[in-house]
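Q: What residues go here?
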């Protein structure tokens, strides 16, 4: 596992339901204008068909669900974060491997790449999945095996057992019968060649998405025999431009502007290309669909998302000729974070588009319901959880924290966002901790500090001012997500004032070139 992945294991920006909407003056910096290279093509905010918002609330999927459960009108983005390292370790069923050499940012691809998206896994309790094709048959191959594969009558049900695969073709019909397959191999399932590559999946409870049930591309069922919870991973291989509409439809409120959809398409594409470069030869998927990566619901009918991807086809953000991992999150709370502070210390983050400088003024995201919020924690419980969590995660510097007297901001970034905190324990000893790390510690489940609390109980960001009040730790917080790169609420506010996608991207990734990498 490379250093970045290792670092990513230590972080999560998993997001919870919203609490308070705060007022405050809208104060936006003027966009500076995007630096363009010659090969770049202007992004125009042409009128895309503003049709069919599919979700009642606009924001898709997990976000909307969380929101509805919480009873708050909050947007929950998935802050392409980064527990993929943990995912990788989990997938391998091993502890993290020794660091591999650091990954450089990729060169822009000259043709459209495919991306491998893990959408979920088959649960150990009932490890089966039914796959329905667009036609009468499905084609099942063993990747890497020269054999032509097996054609089965659709739908085919795949069940993982101690003896390997048991498959049934024409499952659920009177013609149902066993289908012979390689017992323990990874299986790749696809429609026949002259059919649209769209599959329907049912039965796997942890599959992402939900409201739209068709999945573009092929599906791989990858056995993970040592995984205690999900013995099979479900991984889709999809062309990049086919993948992206299902990201936008879930990452943004469907009713949001055309231009914010276009800016989001460029950011999501750029980020995904960097994940491909990082993971292609290291594990069996590039990104996770959902809060551990970026959201994805498979095929979408949301026309604005489809048009925004088509209208920016191949367009990526570059810095010195290489792709920028264009992180984004729901709401920065007014001041943004640099990737080095909030994601990891990887060298790929030491680039101006991912840094925060003094010139970076207050962001205009105060319409977010998570612009300001407050959480409370039982002080004694957190005092017990913190060193236990540190032991789980291997942070030796925090092993000896004994009780809690104070937590104060030790250092802020140029924009004023905390990057480190100082903890004073009951004995008066001082400890320093990075902001995102403190957030992770506060989000640890007191009963099992290696695990996260339920998402509704988690801190929404590390942009916090903690205060000990009696027996409680009162946390005044701002924003939702890691705060690096594009702030989705801020971007939408800019777009509503008429900003073009290029101006939005310029504000949030300063100095980056907007380039059309492939046609
Ligand atoms: Zn913001």
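A:
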């Amino acid at each position: 596992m490379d250093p970045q992945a290792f670092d990513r294991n230590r972080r999560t920006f998993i997001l919870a339901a919203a609490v308070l909407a705060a007022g405050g003056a809208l104060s936006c910096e003027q966009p500076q204008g995007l630096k363009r290279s010659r090969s770049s093509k202007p992004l125009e905010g042409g009128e895309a068909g503003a049709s069919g918002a599919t979700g009642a609330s606009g924001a898709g999927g997990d976000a909307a669900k969380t929101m509805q459960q919480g009873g708050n009108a909050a947007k929950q983005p998935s802050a392409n974060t980064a527990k993929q390292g943990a995912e990788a370790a989990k997938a391998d069923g091993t502890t993290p491997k020794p660091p591999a050499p650091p990954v450089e940012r990729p060169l822009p691809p000259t043709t459209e790449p495919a991306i491998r998206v893990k959408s979920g896994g088959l649960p150990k309790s009932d490890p089966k999945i039914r796959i329905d094709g667009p036609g009468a048959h499905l084609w099942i191959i063993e990747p890497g095996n020269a054999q032509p594969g097996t054609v089965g009558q659709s739908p085919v049900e795949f069940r993982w057992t101690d003896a390997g695969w048991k498959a049934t073709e024409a499952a659920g019909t009177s013609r149902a019968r066993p289908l012979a397959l390689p017992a323990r191999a990874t299986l790749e399932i696809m429609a026949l060649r002259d059919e649209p590559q769209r599959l329907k999946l049912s039965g796997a409870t942890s599959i992402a998405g939900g409201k739209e049930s068709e999945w573009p591309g092929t599906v791989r069922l990858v056995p993970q025999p040592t995984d205690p919870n999900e013995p099979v991973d479900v991984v889709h291989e999809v062309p990049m431009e086919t993948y992206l509409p299902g990201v936008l439809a879930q990452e943004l409120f469907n009713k949001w502007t055309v231009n914010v959809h276009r800016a989001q398409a460029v950011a999501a594409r750029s980020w995904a290309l960097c994940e491909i470069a990082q993971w292609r030869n290291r594990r069996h998927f590039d990104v996770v669909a959902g809060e551990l990566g970026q959201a994805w619901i498979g095929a979408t009918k949301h026309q604005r998302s489809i048009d925004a991807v088509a209208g920016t086809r191949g367009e990526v953000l570059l810095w010195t000729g290489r792709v920028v991992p264009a992180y984004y999150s729901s709401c920065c709370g007014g001041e943004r974070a640099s990737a080095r502070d909030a994601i990891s210390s990887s060298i790929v983050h030491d680039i101006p588009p991912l840094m925060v400088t003094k010139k970076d003024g207050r962001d205009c995201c105060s319409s977010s319901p998570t612009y300001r919020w407050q959480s409370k924690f039982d002080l004694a419980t957190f005092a017990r959880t913190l060193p236990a969590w540190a032991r789980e995660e291997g942070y030796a510097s925090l092993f000896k924290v004994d009780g809690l007297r104070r937590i104060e901001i030790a250092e802020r970034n140029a924009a004023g966002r905390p990057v480190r905190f100082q903890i004073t324990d009951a004995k008066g000893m001082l400890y320093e901790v990075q902001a995102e790390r403190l957030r992770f510690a506060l989000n640890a489940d007191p009963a099992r500090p290696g695990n996260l609390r339920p998402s509704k109980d988690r801190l929404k960001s590390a942009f916090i001012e903690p205060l000990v009040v009696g027996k409680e730790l009162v946390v005044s917080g701002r924003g939702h997500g890691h705060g690096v790169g594009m702030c989705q609420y801020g971007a939408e506010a800019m777009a509503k004032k008429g900003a073009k996608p290029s101006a939005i991207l310029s504000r949030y990734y300063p100095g980056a070139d907007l380039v059309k990498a492939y046609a």
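A: Context that may help when evaluating the design: Residues 201 and 408 are 49 Å apart (CA to CA). The first strand starts at residue 114 and ends at 122.
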